[in-house]
Amino acid sequence: MKTIAVLTSGGDAPGMNAAIRAVVRTALDKKFTVMGIERGYSGLINGEVMPMERKTVADIIQRGGTVLKTARSEEFKTEKGRKKAVGVLKKFGIDGLVVIGGDGSFRGAQELSKMSIATIGIPGTIDNDLAYTDFTIGFDTAVNTVLDAINKLRDTSTSHERVSVVEVMGRNCGDIALYSGLAGGAENIILPEIGYDGDELCRSIIREKTKGKLHNLIVLAEGIGGAEALAEKIQKVTGIEARATKLGHIQRGGSPSCMDRILASKFGYRAVELLEEGKTSRVVGIRGGKIVDLDIDEALNMSKHFDNKLYNIANALA
């Protein structure tokens, strides 16, 4: 193997640049030629390929987003589109491909591996919804972004003695809500994995109000419903002012945390090692504090484990 390429696909996540940097500099250290593919699989199909050197990835470890840019590609989902992508890889003499992204990106890498392309996946998604790894790149930064918002909302909620419903991202995975809710001291954390009883929630808010509680903070995962509808119901049933805040895409941006930078660096280094070892169709992750790699088919077939213990801790401390 002489030439490898790296691309970022799907939703961006803080730490993707740190992973790109790690892949490029590790590969160059191992005497590979490195290419960068812009705009994910869409850019691959369109031949948006450029050489990468050490200076290409200078001063990006601290930057959010992805310097390679990202996009979604409907064309790549077709057999014709994937054949075109393989043709571009062969045209540029690319022997191995590192894909940084989430579930959809990995499924693209899985399809390319079936077409005899050596692929390695690095988990980059704020949702932390890949079952095979404890953490994904971008998750820690997103949680800290939410935590900062919660801290500010608590101040104004206390001043006005109101209920604050904060909606966070995560698709159908409640990890961002669970971790930020626990760290932020939320009174209630609503997750798609657990569900909730709206009437009982309102009763608990009333009970806390009668005990003299000045505010009530609820963290709501986007996968279970909208914050505005819940806030309207709470205000109507309890008579207590309730406001909804949807944090949206600010959770995707910002300078990556120390944890995300280190995780991305470790993942990028291991991804290149795997290609050097002649391994393919693998994904890199972390379990119990150790860097691991699994077959991509096995990884994508695993079911996400919900941390009931952490949820119980959050409830006990609320």
Describe the structure concisely.
With 318 residues, this protein is α/β, with parallel strands linked by helices. It folds into two domains: 182 residues, Rossmann fold (3-Layer(aba) Sandwich); 114 residues, Phosphofructokinase domain (Rossmann fold). It has eleven helices and eleven strands.
Would you mind describing this structure in some detail?
By secondary structure, the protein is an alpha/beta fold. The protein has 2 domains: 3-138 and 256-301, Rossmann fold (3-Layer(aba) Sandwich), CATH 3.40.50.450; 140-253, Rossmann fold. Helices cover 42% and strands 18% of the residues. A 7-stranded mixed sheet has the order 3-2-1-4-5-10-11, with helices on both faces. The chain has a 4-stranded parallel sheet with strand order 7-8-6-9, with helices on both faces. α1 runs parallel beside α9, α6 (175-183) packs parallel to α11 and α7 packs across α8. The N and C termini lie far apart (54 Å). It is found in: Cytoplasm. Pathway: Carbohydrate degradation; glycolysis; D-glyceraldehyde 3-phosphate and glycerone phosphate from D-glucose: step 3/4.
